[in-house]
Amino acid sequence: MHTSKSTSEELPEEKKITDIHTVLSSGSSSLRKKAEEIHESKEPLPLSVRLRKIKQPINLADADTQKLIYELEVHQIELEMQNEELELAKVQSQKLAEKYTELYDFSPSGYFTLSREGEIIELNLFGAQLLNKDRTYLKNRRFGFFVAEESKPVFSSFIETLFTTHNKSSCEIWLYPKEGFLPVELYLTGIMTTGVEHCLIAATDISLLKQIEREIQKKNAQLLKVNAEKDKFFSIIAHDLRSPFNGFMGLTELLAEGSSKMSMDEIRKIALLMKNSAANLNHLLGNLLEWSQMERGLISFAPKEHFLAPILKDSLVLVLENAKEKDIVIDFDIPDDLGVYADKNMLESVFRNLVSNAVKFTPRGGSITVSAKSLPDNFIEFSVSDFGIGMSASLIKNLFSINAKTGRRGTDNELSTGLGLIICKDLIEKQGGKLSVESQEGEGSVFRFTLPRQM
């Protein structure tokens, strides 16, 4: 009976051991295994010491007691390992948060959280830089305040679409230009947040991209211009240059084969025609050479202060002879002491081309006036006026276009390509002036241009 009683009293204690062991061994198998390996690697403490660490009296047989102590110690190691893992996870999460903050702030895009009214709830550092304000100043400010007037309707529609449809939306806007800063163009992409009536906006600065596109367009325009100039050049060589050469060769052939049968008046007439043809060819070749040098940037630019009278005298020697042959009178209305700040060679070319054109399109017995006067803004205005055949509005519109055909014959069938006026315009603008024209068919033309009086 005593033995039976003893056995019945031990049964509950054994159940306790089983329950405790079940709880303690319920952790992860890999964690449990690692904890057991650590426990086995340690030198075991005396049983009395190990019992004191439990801080509770245990009346069990030595084997059961050691088994319970083993489970408790392994479980303690498991808890310590779990605590270490939690601490490590905490450090890693802090690092990730710092990395996220760093990525958020220094991203190459601006990030904004906006309310339905467009107020800035949150933004990153780059977003503040885009708006050129401190981040603390920008919070609770309306984003639309920084949008340029022409872009405000686009931005308002963008925000309304986001909050109305809850769909992803995008637009392009300009920020309000700041003094001393280049205009900024932004590409905005927006999405709605979940659960709160806020929207998230990503803003990308596309100013450089639009600038690159403008450069591409500029280069394309230059290529078109070069192609047009090439076509013009070949057109002049193929037609305008070949035709007068053929005429000149025909005159020399006529003179060479029939001079013995010609009177002196006939020979003199052919010689005069040859002289005029040669002069026209020389003028054309000079323009072609000057234009090609100008297009390749080979013409030097050395502006100085000059008196006008000597420049006119040097540039109009041949032009005055052509005018005399057509009985055309050229009047000069230029003060003797009037000076100009210009490149001498360029100014001579301008006068030579403008006055030569006036002579070319003025009938025999007509008149031309070359004048100059001071303007109050330190500029001099020059004008070359004739009472010749004039020009139509459509011709004036295309007068300075390289790819338009504006050449026509003069009143004595003189050669004209229109290249001289294009050269004049470029040379005048290179010196800081402007060229303009007024004309009516049958009533003549007036070419005016300005140049600085002095520096």
The total of beta strands comes to: 12
Mean of pLDDT: 80
Strand content: 15-25%
Quaternary assembly: single chain
Largest sheet: 5 strands, antiparallel
What do we call the CATH homologous superfamily of the largest domain?
Histidine kinase-like ATPase, C-terminal domain
Name the structural class: alpha+beta
Which bin fits the share of residues in helices?
40-55%
**Spatial ordering of strands, largest sheet:** 2-1-5-4-3
Give the overall shape, derived from the CA principal axes: elongated
CATH architecture of the largest domain: 2-Layer Sandwich
Q: What's the domain count?
A: 3
Low-confidence blocks of residues: 1-11
Distance between the termini: 134 Å
Roughly how many Å is the radius of gyration?
48 Å
CATH class placement of the largest domain: Alpha Beta
CATH topology name of the largest domain, in short, is Heat Shock Protein 90
The succession of helices and strands, N to C, reads HHHHEEHHHEEEHHEHHEEHEEHHEE
Number of helices: 14
Ordered list of secondary-structure elements with their pairings:
Layout: H1 2-24, H2 29-41, H3 47-54, H4 62-105, E1 110-114, E2 120-123, H5 125-131, H6 135-138, H7 152-165, E3 169-174, E4 185-192, E5 199-205, H8 207-258, H9 264-295, E6 304-307, H10 308-315, H11 317-325, E7 329-333, E8 339-342, H12 344-360, E9 367-374, E10 379-386, H13 393-397, H14 419-430, E11 435-440, E12 444-452
Parallel strand pairs: 7-9
Antiparallel strand pairs: 1-2, 1-5, 3-4, 4-5, 6-8, 9-10, 10-12, 11-12
